[in-house]
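User: Sequence recovery, please. Input:
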């Protein structure tokens, strides 16, 4: 299932969401200019490597990606769900929340396999936090989704609770399966599943501390 947009319009301009997408896009374009050797060096220095942990990488790793599908998928989910969460949090709170979600996600992956020398990169953990917050803030929302059938593609409205809940269960299942069968981090298979789980759970819980008690008024309100 490929989400296209949700049904809840944002009442404020999502400055932080757009800025984060812009920084990720700029970083990705820079990655494309590098040779394979230079790119490997970049990812090992600025990605989170559990066995050689460095605090600054908690931030830098959130803006690096490993492929077109990786960055396009992440930015699509951030665009769909980020504006509404930013709308309810406010710009400053949303930025702090986003960075904390990414940090918690990184530590989730580190704790799963502290001896790993594989760099963990990507905005997925932080965006998982945004998705966790969204499911609490907008439990009745629906998401316009592209559904691949056997021959044709159908556009349908899917409850956000189902779409995001199903996504979370997949991450949890894969993280658990890898931990049981291999005892190593999901990052070695290309996806940091535990980072997704940790980020999502953080979003579910932290939303209550970050959401504004009073929603912003529409400009048409009298």
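Assistant: Recovered sequence (222 residues):
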């Amino acid at each position: 299932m490929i989400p296209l947009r949700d049904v809840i319009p944002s009442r404020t301009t999502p400055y932080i969401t757009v800025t984060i997408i812009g920084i990720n896009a700029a970083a990705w374009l820079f990655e494309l200019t590098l040779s394979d050797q230079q790119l490997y060096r970049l990812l090992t220095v600025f990605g989170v490597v559990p066995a050689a942990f460095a605090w600054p990488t908690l931030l830098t790793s959130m803006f690096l990606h490993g492929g077109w599908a990786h960055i396009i998928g992440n930015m699509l989910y951030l665009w769909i769900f980020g504006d509404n969460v930013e709308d309810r949090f406010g710009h400053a709170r949303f930025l702090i929340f986003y960075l904390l979600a990414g940090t918690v996600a990184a530590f989730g992956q580190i704790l799963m396999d502290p001896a790993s020398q594989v760099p963990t990169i990507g905005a997925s953990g932080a965006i998982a936090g945004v998705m966790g917050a969204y499911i609490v803030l907008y439990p009745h929302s629906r998401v316009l989704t592209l559904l691949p059938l056997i021959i044709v593609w159908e556009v349908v409205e899917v409850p956000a609770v189902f779409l995001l809940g199903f996504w979370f269960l997949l991450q949890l299942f894969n993280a658990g399966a890898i931990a049981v069968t291999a005892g190593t981090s999901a990052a070695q298979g290309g996806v940091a599943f535990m980072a997704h789980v940790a980020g999502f759970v953080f979003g579910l819980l932290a939303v209550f501390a970050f959401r504004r008690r009073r929603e912003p008024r529409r400009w048409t309100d009298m």
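Strands lie at 2-6, 142-148, 153-159.
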